[in-house]
Write a structure and sequence with these properties.
Blueprint lengths: L2 H15 L3 H9 L19 H8 L26 E5 L4 E10 L5 E8 L2 E10 L2 E12 L8 H6 L12 E6 L3 E2 L10 E11 L2 E14 L2 E11 L14 E17 L1
Amino acid sequence: MQPRSILIGALVVALLAIGGGSAAYVLFLRGDDVAPLALPSTAAGASSGTSADSSAGSGAASGAVASMPAASGSTLDAASVPGTWAIGPNSVVGYRVRERLASLLADSDAVGRTSTITGTATITGSGSTLTVSKADFTVDMTSLASDKQMRDNRLRTQGIETNTYTTSTFILTQPLALPANALSGSPVSVTIHGDLTLHGVTKTVDVAAKAQVSGSVIQVLGTLTFPFSDFNIVAPSIGGFVTVQDTGTLEFLVNLTKS
């Protein structure tokens, strides 16, 4: 018998001996912890380590997500901002859900992300007052990637069912007045009100977000946690030994560039 065959046989026996499905989950499905997305720091010498490393732990493993560049000081003024802003390079959108193995007490996060995002935002100005008057974004759900292809394949037909619901969209439904210090280069807090379409269901949502100007780019970070039932999503499970909590989190970190 070849050494490879012996190794495979021993692995199969070990999986059966210690619980089969549970062991397979630990070895092949459960992912490493992935840090939440974060705005790049404007501190001197800072890199995009927080945001870039967090994306590299999931979708970026397959080359789907590039590193977010380090933030730089603001070079925009109120007169140069009005116009159309498009999704730029290194933007990231994804999900975060809690998984639990039946035989273990500890939970772990499953995180999938993509940089296949399109759309634009329109900013208008009146004196020093800036307002996001329109925004419309689309995410290619089929391009979502985590650190485990087995998980990604399962979500094609379970949970968010990306084979059926291939895109998700967000449309701004209420003008967003930007804070007076929005162009300072430091993060400012905003609430984005709009219609989110996910899994074929459209809901009006309020998304807590932070925005900052970095050079000539506007960076926006946000999260939205919601019950799966809001979007008619059935939490996926694996043979009853891996369960997913009935809430999920949408997270994004996008670069907007002037068109």
